[in-house]
Design a protein that fits this description.
The complex is a heterodimer of chains A (223) and B (381). Chain A is α/β, with parallel strands linked by helices. An 8-stranded mixed sheet of chain A has the order 3-2-1-4-5-8-6-7, with helices on both faces. Chain A is built from 8 helices and 8 strands, in the order αβαβαβαβαβααββαβ. Chain B has 2 domains: 266 residues, Alpha/Beta hydrolase fold, catalytic domain (Rossmann fold), CATH 3.40.50.1820; 101 residues, Rna Polymerase Sigma Factor, Chain: A (Orthogonal Bundle), CATH 1.10.1740.110. The chains are: A alpha/beta (223), B alpha/beta (381). At the A-B interface, helix 3 and strand 3 of A face helix 10, strand 14 and helix 11 of B.
C-alpha cells in the first residue's frame, strides 16, 4: 500500500523527508499507530528514538513480515478493515504517511482515524507542485516526478490531490487542521526545506496534523 | 527462584525423552483426579542461571516431545518434527533459548494417557482414563515448567492443537508468558472441524477390534484408525496442494482399473498415511486428543470467561500467524483473535502467509515464516 520502498531516501533506511517532519511532531513516549507502515522505517525510528508505543498496519505481506521480523508490532491487513477494531482514543497519533492518496475510501478512513486517535498526521504528495503542473501542461502526459515515479497504469496513487484540496476537504468533512508543513526537497539534497511562499505551487509534499471538530473535548476524556 | 538446576542436569537432554512426574494428583477439568501423572519431555539448549531464557513449544494433535534433532544418539539425532525452525541458529535458536517440549497429556509418546497402565488395576486405563482438555494439558505443562524454576517463559509457541495450548497458556498464566505465538490455529473449534473429528472417531469406534477401548494385548482397531487418519490428512492439505502433489495421476498403472483397487496416487498416499499412523499411534489416544480439540473454546465473546478477563489486561506480546490455504483453521479465525486483542488495546502482530500447502504449511519450510518467527523472537526477552 505504501510507496516507501520506491522513494530513494528509504533505501538506506534513513527517514524520508516527510517522515523527518512527522517524527519531529511526535511526543516522546506517546502511543502511535502508523497506517500503511511499509517496511517500518518510520515506526522503527519512533520506537527506538522516541520510545513510543508503536503499532502498524500494512497490507502487503512481505512488508508486514519484514516489520514483524524487525521487532515491530504490525498487523497484516487492510487499513479500512483493521481501524474499526481499535477503541476510541487508543492512540495519541495516527500517522497516514503516503497512504491517503492510495485508499479507496479516504473519508471513511479519516473518520475512523479521528476516532481512534487523539490526532492524525497526514502526509501526501502535492499534485499542485509546479513540476507536476508543467509536465501535465507541456508534455501533455500524466506527470512523473521524483516523488511520483509511476506510470499512469502502475501507480498505486488512485487519488490526485493538492494542498489546497486538502484544506477544502477539512472544511467539508469537517475536521480541524492544527499544524501543517509544506516541504520541498531541493534537487541533489536529502534535506527537506519548509516552503512558506506559495506552498501549493512550490511544495512537493504536504503534512498536516488534524483533529476532529470536537477536539476541544475535556482532558479527562483522554485519560 | 525456588531452585536453579545446574547446566549438567540438562546434558540428559540429548539422550531422549525424560519423564517428569507431577508432584500432586492432577485434577482434570472434568472433575476427575488422577495420581502419578507423568509427562515425557525433551529440552534443548541451556537454561540461563536466572531461568529467564526458556521457550515452551507445544506440539500438534499426534506430535511428540522430539521437536528438534540435535541429539548425539541415533534416537535423539533423528529429525524432529520442527527441525526447520528449532536448533542452533534457527528461528527458535537453541544457542540462545532453553527450549522445552513435552508430550501432551492423553497422548501415547511417554506421557500418561489411555494406553498407560492404571496402577490400581495393573491394566491400561482405556476408556476409564479421564477426558482430557487443552486446559488439562496446559496445567500439566505448567507443573513441568515450574519444576525447572522458571517463573516466566520468553515465549510459548505452537501450531494447530499446539496453538490452542499457546492461547490457553496466555489465558491461564498471563504473567508467565512474555510472548505468545499461536500459529495456524483457532480460539474455538468450529462445527466443521468438530465434524471431521467425529467422523474420524466413529471410524475407530465402529472397528470391531476397538471393543470399547479394551483392545490392549489383542488385535487393535487398525482399520478404523487408518481411515480416521486418512480423513485427518485431507483436512491438512488443500485443493491446490493435492492438485500439485497428485493431480489425477494414476498409481502404478497405465489405465483405470474399472474395479475398486487403488487407481489414483492420492488414494495410495492416503492409504500409506493410514498404514504408517497405526504403527505409531494409539487408537484410544486418538479419541482423547481429538476430543480435547473439539472441547476447545476460549470463550472470548463472554466477558466473564477466564480468557476474556486475562486478555483484557495482559501484557503478553502476541504474534498470530495463519496460512492462506489452511481451510481447517482459516485465516478469519486468526483475525477474530487479532481483532479481539486490538479492541483491548493489547500488543499484537499478525501475518497471513501465502502458502499452498494447507494446514500442514506451519510444519513445512517457508522463508517468510522463518523470518517472522526468528525476527520476532530476537526482540523477546
Amino acid at each position: 500500500m505504501s510507496v516507501n520502498a520506491n522513494i530513494h531516501a528509504a533505501e538506506n533506511e534513513s527517514l524520508r523527508f516527510d517522515q523527518q517532519v512527522i517524527a519531529s511532531w511526535i511526543t516522546e513516549g506517546s502511543r502511535v499507530l502508523d497506517l500503511g507502515c511499509g517496511d517500518g522505517v518510520l515506526l522503527d525510528y519512533l520506537v527506538r528514538e522516541k520510545h513510543v508505543h508503536g503499532t502498524g498496519i500494512e497490507l502487503e505481506e512481505s512488508r508486514a513480515a519484514h516489520c514483524i521480523g524487525r521487532g515491530l508490532s504490525v498487523v497484516h491487513g487492510n487499513v479500512n478493515e483493521e481501524l474499526p477494531h481499535y477503541p476510541d482514543n487508543a492512540f495519541d497519533y495516527v500517522i497516514v504517511s503516503q497512504t491517503l492518496q492510495q485508499v479507496h475510501r479516504p473519508s471513511r478512513m479519516l473518520e475512523q482515524l479521528l476516532r481512534v486517535g487523539r490526532c492524525g498526521i497526514v502526509s501526501f504528495p502535492n499534485f499542485g507542485y509546479w513540476r507536476v503542473r508543467l509536465q501535465a501542461m507541456f508534455a501533455g502526459r500524466a506527470p512523473r516526478t521524483r516523488e511520483l515515479p509511476y506510470e499512469w497504469h502502475d501507480t498505486p496513487n488512485i487519488r490526485v490531490l493538492t494542498l489546497r484540496d486538502f484544506r477544502q476537504y477539512a472544511r467539508e468533512i469537517p475536521f480541524r487542521i492544527t499544524r501543517q508543513a509544506a516541504v520541498a526537497m531541493p534537487a541533489g539534497t536529502l534535506e527537506p526545506r519548509q516552503v512558506t511562499l506559495l506552498p501549493n505551487l512550490r511544495a512537493s509534499y504536504g503534512i498536516f496534523m488534524i483533529e476532529d471538530m470536537a477536539g476541544s473535548r475535556p482532558a479527562s476524556d483522554n485519560q | 527462584m525456588r531452585f536453579i538446576m545446574t547446566t549438567s542436569s540438562f546434558a540428559a537432554a540429548t539422550s531422549g525423552p525424560l519423564l517428569f512426574s507431577l508432584p500432586a494428583p492432577h485434577r482434570f477439568e472434568s472433575g476427575a483426579v488422577l495420581e502419578g501423572v507423568q509427562l515425557a519431555y525433551e529440552t534443548y539448549g541451556t537454561l540461563a542461571p536466572g531461568a529467564d531464557n526458556a521457550v515452551l513449544i507445544c506440539h500438534a494433535l499426534t506430535g511428540d516431545a522430539h521437536v528438534a534433532g540435535s541429539g548425539s544418539t541415533p534416537e535423539t539425532a533423528r529429525p524432529g518434527w520442527w527441525d526447520e525452525y528449532v536448533g542452533p541458529g534457527r528461528p527458535i535458536d537453541t544457542d540462545r533459548f532453553f527450549v522445552i517440549c513435552s508430550n501432551i497429556l492423553g497422548s501415547c509418546y511417554g506421557s500418561t494417557g489411555p494406553a498407560s497402565i492404571n496402577p490400581a488395576t495393573g491394566t491400561p486405563y482405556g476408556l476409564s482414563f479421564p477426558v482430557v482438555t487443552i486446559t488439562d494439558m496446559v496445567r500439566a505443562q505448567h507443573a513441568l515448567v515450574s519444576h525447572f524454576g522458571i517463573e516466566r517463559l520468553c515465549a510459548v509457541v505452537g501450531g494447530s492443537l499446539g496453538g490452542m495450548q499457546v492461547l490457553e497458556w496466555a489465558a491461564r498464566y498471563p504473567d508467565m508468558v512474555e510472548a505468545a505465538i499461536p500459529i495456524a490455529t483457532t480460539t474455538r473449534h468450529s462445527a466443521q472441524a468438530i465434524a471431521f473429528n467425529e467422523v474420524a472417531r466413529q471410524s475407530v469406534i465402529s472397528d470391531p477390534n476397538w471393543r470399547q477401548g479394551e483392545y490392549y494385548g489383542g488385535a487393535a482397531p487398525d482399520l478404523g484408525l487408518a481411515v480416521a487418519r486418512m480423513i485427518g490428512h485431507i483436512t491438512y492439505l488443500s485443493d491446490e496442494s493435492m492438485h500439485a502433489k497428485f493431480g489425477r495421476n494414476l498409481q502404478d498403472r497405465e489405465n483405470l482399473s474399472f474395479n475398486f483397487e487403488t487407481d489414483f496416487q492420492v488414494e495410495s498416499y492416503l492409504h500409506h498415511q493410514g498404514r504408517k499412523f497405526v504403527q505409531r499411534f494409539d487408537a484410544n489416544s486418538f479419541l482423547y486428543v481429538t476430543k480435547a480439540a473439539d472441547y476447545f473454546d476460549l470463550g472470548l465473546e463472554r466477558p466473564d470467561s477466564h480468557a476474556a478477563q486475562a486478555f483484557a489486561k495482559t501484557r503478553t506480546r502476541f504474534l498470530v500467524v495463519s496460512f492462506t490455504s489452511d481451510w481447517l483453521y482459516p485465516t478469519y479465525q486468526s483475525r477474530a483473535l487479532v481483532a479481539h486483542l486490538q479492541r483491548g488495546g493489547r500488543d499484537v502482530s499478525f501475518c497471513e502467509i501465502t502458502e499452498k500447502w494447507g494446514h500442514d504449511a506451519f510444519l513445512l519450510p517457508n522463508s517468510h515464516f522463518a523470518n517472522i518467527l526468528g525476527g520476532f523472537l530476537r526482540h523477546v526477552c
